[in-house]
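Researcher: Re-running this chain for the archive, since the previous output was lost when a drive failed. Same request as before.
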Amino acid sequence: MADRDHAFGQADILDPELHQFRRAGAGFQHQPGPAALGVGLVEEAQLFLNREPVHAAAAGLLADVLPIASGANRTTVREHALRVAEHVEAELGEERPCFIDGCPAEWAALPIPEGRIVAALDGGYVRNWDDRKSNFELIVGRSVPEDRPPCYLGLVHGYDQKPKRRLFEMLKSQGLQANQDVTFLTDGGEEVRALTELVTPEAEHVLDWFHITMRLTVLGQYARGVAHHDKAEGARLLAALDSIKWLLWHGNQYRAGEEITFLEGDVDGLELDYPNLGKFARAAHEFAVYIASNASSLINYGERFRSGERISSCLAESTVNGVISKRFAKHQQMQWTKRGAHLLLQTRTRTLDGTLRPLFERWYPGLANDNENRAAKAAAA
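Model: Regenerated structure tokens:
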């Protein structure tokens, strides 16, 4: 038995087997051997790293697995989880306004890339701990190459000082080349759109179809409300909305813009006793501004859909649910500091794309060796 200080406090090591791990640039550190740590501890760590209410349960788990003398509480576990994320942050390179290097001649000489990368980006809001009456925005994304596993991105808008670098490194980890086609699907927000600029030369920004139809659906609901007061006028507005949708689907931006302008004028000219008429007018105006500001990101959605390519950021919507909603927003309604949310997003995204354990194995090579030895013994048996 021996007293050893480690990441979770002071422990009396019952297992005589002690293992030395070398952490890059940190020399040798004594850590409990595999028998003391237990199989799958890192997998359990991945669980509590991403669930704030489980920090207390995680401390209990560690007390069961490790003979901790001083005890570990939820605060200790949470702070250690955030330190892991801070270490990851320290390894991130410097931010740059532009990540496009070289010239077209150099890009043409590169090998043929693997295929198109589709990166869907979207945002979500969580409650602010420092200002209980306000929220702040999180941006999350999922990058899906044709022949590689997906990777995830998460950051707090306005807090993260290296958002473009973070996006570039995610794409680079998937084999990005300067001559590779990259499609960014977003909801058209200014912040997300700016994030995708000057990241790679062969990139295109596409306004996703999901958010277009979502806004048209809201306008259609208002038009049906108008129909209860004036059936003919309501039918005319619904027909105009169908026409706008058809034109946008087929990439006819000019005609669609004209129809949207006509719709905006028609709604402003309505004189009905419809209680939501003001909201209808504001929604029509906001839709006109939304389409005009994203005119360069509109494509022929029908043609691309028939070609089997992605046209919607439902990919990103599911990422929002997977990365932030379960713990950050939906049901729990927890309050977060920007620092805590940003750092937790880093461990959450690494858990989702399976790079958290390899990260520990790079920091502590002995951990990888232990896994290899156990795998070899299991195969021999």
